[in-house]
Write a structure and sequence with these properties.
Blueprint (H helix, E strand, L loop, with lengths): L24 H5 L2 H10 L4 H20 L11 H22 L23 H14 L4 H11 L4 H8 L3 H20 L1
């Protein structure tokens, strides 16, 4: 139950939306010049401007048919329509700029032709991730020693860097290898 406002006789009225207005598609089409100008100002190049303009016009006609054009009273009806269409044009231009082919991603038939040198296999990365997931099943103390030794450090250096006796470092390495072998067998 909501708390009643002080001095209020009744709850505040919900804001009312104006009723939907139907306008003919010809009125929308008459504003093509304005839309084309807005698309130019939004940075849509000339080669794609007609396509984006078509998306704007279709979107506006569909919105009117679905009852989403609800102008507020007070301004001249053509001015209200123009403002609404400008909003549609700005949103369509933003969508245009977000598309992958506009972000300079160019599809080529064989991308390996542009790579020089050795190309790593994608399977190696997948296998490495699977092994790392298995490594997380080893105890953290043993895992730390395993990783450092796997990177090429000597066990004595690992013991010194972790502040452990050398015997403890060797036993953690032995137990870590044993647990990792058990996990790999599964």
């Amino acid at each position: 139950m909501s708390k009643r406002r002080r001095g209020a006789k009744r709850p505040p009225a919900a804001p009312t939306q104006p009723p939907p207005v139907t306008i003919p598609p010809e009125a929308i089409l008459a504003e093509s010049r304005l839309l084309r100008h807005m698309l130019t100002r939004c940075g849509v190049p000339a080669r794609d401007r007609d396509d984006v303009l078509q998306e704007c016009l279709i979107g506006a006609v569909v919105a009117v048919r679905e009852g989403r054009y609800r102008p507020q009273a007070g301004l001249h009806p053509r001015r209200i329509l123009q403002r609404w269409l400008v909003g549609i044009a700005v949103r369509q231009a933003a969508k245009y700029h977000e598309k992958s082919y506009r972000r300079r991603e160019v599809a080529v038939p064989d991308p390996r032709a542009y790579v020089t040198g050795r190309v790593p296999s994608p399977h190696g990365e997948v296998e490495a991730r699977a092994l790392l997931d298995l490594l997380w099943q080893v105890e953290p103390r043993e895992r730390r020693v395993l990783i450092l030794v796997g990177e090429g450090e000597q066990v004595s250096e690992v013991a010194r860097s972790l502040g452990l006796p050398i015997g403890t470092a060797f036993s953690r390495l032995r137990r870590g290898r044993k647990r990792l072998a058990t996990v790999l067998k599964r």
